[in-house]
Amino acid sequence: MKRRVRRVAYLALLAAVAAIVLFPLYYAIAGSLMSDAALVAFPPALFPTEFNWRNYQRVMEAFPLLRQYGNSMFVSLSIVAGVLLTSVLAAYAFVFIAFPYKRVVFAAFMTTMMIPVESLIIPKYLLVADLGWIDRYPGLVVPFIASGFGTFLMRQFFLTFPAELHEAAKIDGCGHLRFAWTILVPLSKHALGVLALYTFIAAYNQFFWPLLVTNTPQMQTLQIGLASLDTAEARAPSLIFAGVVVAVAPMLLLFYLFQRNIVRGLTAGAVK
Questions:
Q1: Mean pLDDT in each 10-residue stretch from start to end of the chain (272 residues)?
Q2: Which of 91, 128, 142, 98 is nearest to 213 (CA)?
Q3: pTM score > 0.70 for this model?
Q4: Which residues have a Cβ under 8 Å from the Cβ of 214 and sit 6 or more positions away?
């Protein structure tokens, strides 16, 4: 009896925490379907009495959000591709290639994770400006295609592979790139999936850097467009909620489609 009561209390606590976490998302979806009058009324409405789908049409017409949506997807996917490529190659070198001062170089990679991001804003901006990449895609992508965290993650995962695997590939005449592409990458798909997902989320949610290096609405990303909705049409709350739902939809879809790969990638290598 005590065990049953404890289990019910535990499940009730989990349900309460889940409700608290999910309520902002629910209210954003519900608010996107309400009228502005219902949202500003007191007490506020928690359920839409009628579904006002025109809010999504209005939010697309208010700003070039479709173009900004495409910019965010292109920039995020480009950064993911760059991070995966550089992380796999760097991690491979640290694990399977012997060169002088390997540990010193790896320690230098790790120190980049301890440098505050804010301290790099000015040097990055000056470099991008000197290269003529202001208000261009390279200025949004290139500064983020290398990741100390990605290198560390893939190195730790590659260390779980037996050294005999590399030796057997060398005996069969397999070069470095072929071994990495045909053997390591397929065996590391779960770790790569986790790295890709977290990199995509970080790149997709960037706000300050795109705001700094873009000047025109056609080159701005979705996050900047959503911030502009706060001053559009007298700050219509229904438009803001609709824009939030549009922005968060790719994240929800990614988590739903790759939730199993995320769990496998996070636990891969935990037990040898």
A1: 83 92 88 80 78 80 80 94 94 90 88 86 93 93 92 90 84 85 87 89 92 90 81 68 85 78 60 48
A2: 128
A3: yes
A4: 134, 135, 139, 140, 220, 221, 224
Q: Residue holding tokens 């760059």? A: 82
- The domains found in the chain, sorted by start residue, are 1-52 (no CATH), 59-267 (1.10.3720.10)
Q: Hey, how many other C-beta atoms are within 10 angstroms of the C-beta on 263? A: 12
